[in-house]
């Protein structure tokens, strides 16, 4: 068993940062991804047999490690003055060291948000678990927001003043004279035709032309204001409940499980999914596929927990 005293957290004194790097905002994740990032694999159900049933951060951690390495190397590649390969490798090793990653984990208070088995609390301070937790968040950013968001975040955390963005790929072309475009001539107004008055010669009064007034354009009435939802109304039935329920569960630090069972023939069977909160069944759903049944179970549990 590792203890927190076995690992002394310290930021790397040789890593140069700008002042702004100390106030970098944490990228926001989707609720379902956020819950998965902070769920330790020690909570994985023994009966889970496929990755679709894993609700922990192990897969995101592997993805995030690769994305972090790519982001750091990209930043160092475009640093000015240019770095040699040995310098890039040395700086990359320094930036992705456990001490440096631990400083980021402590800055964002990531350990305090992790849900894990009580026997694993002390292990969260080990270098392996520290790195895995940060990798998982990087993997969540990559999965939800893409590599550009990962690159922007890591660049800001590194705080290296020499980093430049990759220049756009442009081919040199021969300078050709730019064709001079003639300015568009305004279209002359069309003459207005005034029909003659057939009774003008019989009138007692001299014929005077009628004044012409510009036509008034038809103004469409403004669209009605959108209807605002009633704040006292419960959650709408057509909205997705699974992300909402998982977000509420993460905020309340409760353990949620979704045991699933398939019954019937393979081509026309049904999935039955239960929503179990802290070991107590709170909802159940049945559907033609697992996701629909899981959504129904989360909906039932959402109301059963009184979170409306």
UniProtKB/TrEMBL annotation:
Gene3D superfamilies found in the cross-reference section: 3.30.160.20, Ribonuclease III domain
Pfam families membership: dsrm (PF00035)
GO biological process: RNA processing
Domain RNase III as annotated: residue spans: 52-146
Record's compositionally biased regions (Low complexity): 175-184
Keyword RNA-binding applies: yes
Keywords, sorted A to Z: RNA-binding
CDD domains according to UniProt: DSRM_SF
Residues covered by region (Disordered): 1-26, 165-191
Amino acid composition bias (Polar residues), ranges on this chain: 1-15
GO-annotated molecular function: ribonuclease III activity; RNA binding
Domain DRBM intervals: 237-307
Protein name in UniProt: DRBM domain-containing protein
Source organism of the structure: Armillaria tabescens
């Amino acid at each position: 068993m590792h203890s927190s005293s076995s690992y002394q957290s310290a930021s790397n004194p040789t890593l140069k940062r700008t002042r702004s790097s100390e106030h970098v905002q944490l990228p926001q994740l989707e609720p379902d991804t956020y819950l998965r990032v902070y769920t330790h694999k020690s909570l994985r159900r023994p009966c889970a047999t496929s990755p679709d049933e894993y609700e922990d951060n192990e897969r995101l951690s592997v993805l995030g490690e690769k994305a972090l390495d790519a982001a750091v190397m990209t930043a160092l590649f475009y640093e000015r003055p240019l770095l040699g390969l040995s310098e890039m490798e040395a700086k990359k090793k320094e930036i992705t060291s456990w001490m440096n990653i631990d400083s980021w984990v402590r800055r964002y208070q990531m350990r305090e948000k992790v849900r894990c088995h009580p026997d694993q609390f002390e292990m969260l301070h080990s270098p392996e678990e520290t790195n895995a937790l940060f990798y998982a968040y990087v993997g969540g950013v990559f999965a939800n927001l893409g590599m550009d968001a990962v690159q922007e975040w890591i660049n800001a955390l590194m705080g290296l003043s020499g980093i430049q963005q990759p220049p756009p790929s442009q081919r040199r072309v021969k300078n050709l004279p730019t064709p001079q475009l003639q300015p568009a001539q305004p279209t002359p107004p069309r003459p207005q035709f005034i029909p003659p008055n057939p009774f003008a010669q019989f009138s007692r009064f001299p014929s005077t032309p009628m004044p012409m007034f510009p036509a008034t354009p038809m103004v469409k009435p403004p669209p009605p204001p959108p209807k605002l939802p009633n704040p006292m109304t419960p959650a709408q039935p057509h909205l997705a409940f699974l992300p909402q329920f998982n977000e509420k569960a993460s905020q309340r630090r409760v353990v949620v499980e979704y045991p699933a069972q398939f019954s019937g023939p393979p081509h026309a069977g049904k999935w039955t999914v239960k929503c179990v909160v802290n070991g107590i069944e709170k909802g159940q759903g049945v559907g033609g596929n697992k996701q629909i049944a899981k959504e129904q179970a989360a909906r039932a549990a959402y109301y059963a927990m009184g979170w409306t």
